[in-house]
Amino acid sequence: MAHPDEERELVLDLHGVSVPRVVHAPGLDESARHNRIGAGAGVHLQIGRQGSLDSLSWQSFAPVRPTGDEVEIEVVATGLNFRDVMWALGLLPEEALEDGFAGATLGMECSGIVRRTGPDVTRFVPGDSVITFAPACFATHVRVAEKAVAPVPSTVDIEAAATIPVTFLTAYYALVELARLEEGETILIHGGAGGVGLAALQIAIWRGARVIATAGSPEKRRLLTMLGAEHVLDSRSLVFQDEVMAISGGKGVDVVLNSLFGEAMERSIATLRPFGRFVELGKRDYYANSRIGLRPFRQNLSYFGVDADQLLTHRPALAARLFRELVERFEDGVFSALPYRAFAANRVTTPSG
């Protein structure tokens, strides 16, 4: 570093000293020529090496004409889910992708415009604005079965509509179809400021339930209070169990929508009153094959595990029905799209910046 030269930027590491230089890179030129987008072509996001976001790149592909009941959609906006981040970082177990609708791809929900339809499609025509579940939604075009598509509600703009499919279908399936949340009941929503949590808050209020929510920061707790939660607790403290019991007069809650793990999950089960329903959204305890005691379940408790990705694969008719019901609720003005931030495709590796 004391060498008498004109260098002002140096990197010193175990391999020596490096200085910045602009040089010709024939390999990159060849890659650019190979991946040039031609007429009628599209691009989709690919990851070269899991665990390295720097290996993400947009690759060209030729869209295939839809057949049967398939719909081709030109993507306007794609929802980024926690699953996508975990998979790209190599932190998602392979079993998490088994039997899933999206499979080992990036992106499982989007909004867009119908461009072509197969001969058996009856509900959509080219030009329709739609939302959908589909594999590999980080793309210019997706092709998917008609049953996984719904019209963009007239109350929501097309970009915001990309926040609807995964979060709202997960919460709606969990609370309406499984837990059968009823008016006057009390629900504990963990992670209330997350996407599914915010959707669940809207659904619970619509059902006439009292909401106790948890969140990890004062800002998030203030947001949940503003949006209608009656009580908002700290999700990072195990004291929430005692607080829930105090709020409920020692009776407990009717439904828990859980995303916590370990001891916090067990304490959440302990907050249920007789005939309570525990709905598990988290996956960590599944993959760890965690054990829970069965003693609490002697009080007619129910346990549900929820994975919307598998719902679309194994119960497509049910998923389609719930999806239609959701859109109707949006049309009626009951639900609203979630807060979001939009990022250009060229910022795919830095969406938090």
Automatic annotation (TrEMBL):
Broadest EC class? Answer: transferase
**Which molecular-function annotations from GO does this UniProt entry contain?**
3-oxoacyl-[acyl-carrier-protein] synthase activity; oxidoreductase activity
Domain named Enoyl reductase (ER): residues: 51-350
Question: What SUPFAM superfamilies is this protein classified in?
Answer: GroES-like, NAD(P)-binding Rossmann-fold domains
Q: What is its EC number?
A: 2.3.1.41
Query: Is Acyltransferase tagged as a keyword?
Result: yes
Q: Which UniProt keywords apply?
A: Acyltransferase, Phosphopantetheine, Phosphoprotein, Transferase
Q: Which InterPro entries match?
A: ADH-like_C, ADH-like_N, ER, GroES-like_sf, NAD(P)-bd_dom_sf, Polyketide_Synthase
Cite the Pfam families for this sequence: ADH_N, ADH_zinc_N
Q: Which Gene3D superfamilies match?
A: Medium-chain alcohol dehydrogenases, catalytic domain, NAD(P)-binding Rossmann-like Domain
Source organism superkingdom: Bacteria
Do you know which PANTHER family this protein is assigned to? POLYKETIDE SYNTHASE 37 (PTHR45681:SF6), POLYKETIDE SYNTHASE 44-RELATED (PTHR45681)
Protein name from the UniProt record: Phthiocerol synthesis polyketide synthase type I PpsC
Q: Which organism is it from?
A: Methylobrevis pamukkalensis
Name the encoding gene, please. Answer: ppsC_3
